[in-house]
Each structure stands twice: as structure tokens, then as C-alpha cells.
User: Fold this.
Amino acid sequence: MTEVIVHIHMPKDEPQTLEIDEFARRRGSTPRAVKEAIRKGEIPIMPKKGREKPIINNALYWVICLSQRY
Assistant:
């Protein structure tokens, strides 16, 4: 079996982390839908300390999306 390695480069204007509202705006979704996807484990977040607001790990989200089979 042949192994293929793909290097993923995020656009320079794409931040590595995003707050829920900004992530939803950029994806054309609602904050409520994004929170539900986070709860289901579909969108990765950064580790939280205490009652901090969730911060989306946008870099990891790109990796997950681009590595899915179609």
C-alpha cells in the first residue's frame, strides 16, 4: 500500500483559534448550531480552565476537515 503525506497550509488570514460567534459567522452558521456541534465532539475546542468560554481550535478543525475521505 502506498502512503501519501499531505502538508496542510492554512490561509494567512485564518486564525488558529476562534470564539464561537466568529466561527459561526465565518461558516454561515448560528452560534447555537456551533455549540451543539461542540457538544457532539464534531468541532474541537482548546482545553478549558474552569468556567472559561470555549475557544475553537480552528487549526485542528481544518486538519480534520481536509483529512476526511470523500
In short: The radius of gyration is 14 Å. The longest helix spans residues 58-67.
